[in-house]
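hey so u asked for the seq, here:
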Amino acid sequence: MSTTGTPRGPVDSSRVPRYAGPATFARLPRLDEVGRTDVAVVGVPFDSGVSYRPGARFGGNAIREASRLLRPYNPAQDAAPFALAQVADAGDIAVNPFDIGEAVATVEDAAGELLATGARLMTLGGDHTVALPLLRAVARRHGPVALLHFDAHLDTWDTYFGAAYTHGTPFRRAVEEGVVDTAALSHVGIRGPLYGRGDLDDDAKMGFGIVTSADVMRRGVDEVTDQLRQRIGDRPLYVSVDIDVLDPAHAPGTGTPEAGGLTSRELLEILRGLAGCRLVSADLVEVAPAYDHAEITSVAASHTAYELTTLMARQIAGERDAD
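ran it, structure tokens below
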């Protein structure tokens, strides 16, 4: 935030070419350049919890590079998010790649420090393991939150190879720890083979509702979004997006791709339909650029983070105007 109280926005691309200069998210200022921020874009370069392809540790910086083409006005939401609220790039949370338990604790502590300043988080993963410590930190500030989880996979398995903390287990742990509101849990985009029918039964017992990718195709974005909004209500909302919710045609650069996913257009439209919900923080994970082509995945991810950031900026501005 500048000394005048006006948010400091992106570098002017009419004066500095988009491909020049440091790759902060959307070419926004660094947190240390503005002192405080309403929305902190923070990376977590960690992928030690993956069960198949590694490489998501490089996802955050790939998203930042792809975000160079984002512009300051979002016509789909009729908002200039970086003028409505201060958004800044908070850099990366440096975590231990050899000790998952320590990494989880580090992310929780660092996220808690950022949230304590009053900022909301737009976290760039990293693998989905990081959602658990982020939810812990958010719940300490807001209480148990509604969870809207976009993914090809449930991520509510108990363990992998006896390990309780992996990218396939964060939401079971979140339910067990009471950091999410079990009356408002939703998966969107679920598809593909499972280990058995018991996976779905266990998931239902935890309180999750499932909207499959086929449901989105058959019922349409508007109907699905209305259903999600009714389930969320006026609760504080956390959104977690695994980029593999998208079909591999739209997101080849990810660790566990599944055929039959959402299009990038469907994902963006569902997110835009959440306007008015109390979005308190979000994450976007599992971008693995080594498997990407022509930045297809990173571009989709950067636009997804942009829509989520816009939602938070609009809400922050609305709360400020109401005071």
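DSSP finds eleven helices and eight strands in the chain. The two ends are 19 Å apart (CA to CA).
lmk if thats what u needed
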